[in-house]
Amino acid sequence: MYDVIIVGGGASGLACALTLASSRGRGWNWAEGRTYLVFDTGESDLHKAYLKNVPGVQPMTGTQLLEVIKEQIKDWGGVEFSEEKVVEIKKDGEVYKVYTEAGKEYSAKYVVLAGGFKEFSIKGLELEVVENPKSPKPGRVMIKHIDFEVMPNLFVVGTLAGLSSHFTSCAGSGVEVAIEILSRMAGKRIVIHDVPQD
Q1: Which pTM value belongs to this model?
Q2: What's the structural domain count of the chain?
Q3: Quick one: which of 69, 97, 136, 189 has the most CB atoms within 10 Å?
Q4: Reduced DSSP (H G I as helix, E B as strand, rest coil) percent helix, strand, coil of the chain, to 5
């Protein structure tokens, strides 16, 4: 069983994974030994992007930026990646069970939906899927939520949460949800900041 499963490997999903992983190695007993799983089918719209307006980041392709973030995640450890497609999620008491197209089953206490706004076809949960009002293209969807939470310990981020498709908007939502999950794990409000080493 994983602590958190993230469905989607774009800006919001990877930002969420990076923030979760970065809680390790800080002397927080509650954060050590946590395991995270990211389902990434490689379909993020960032693969079509060339980013010139991300604050603090030199211009690069979206694919390059995704690889940079994945390397950052690997440096922290504790995150596994799968290319399997998630087709169903079911709530079983305090746990979510995640089923893939390959017939495999995974489970976690927390699930983060980060699959983008083109469609939402995952079965098993009663979610309210509506049109995304911030998309300039018709037919894009979002899942209704309150502060990114759809149901207890099930979150939605990025464009699937109704945000605009800018990298920083989506990545920021992933960070927000990761901090909320980490705070619940810690039993108190936390933030993660690093300072230069002398």
Answers
A1: 0.95
A2: 1
A3: 69
A4: 30, 25, 45
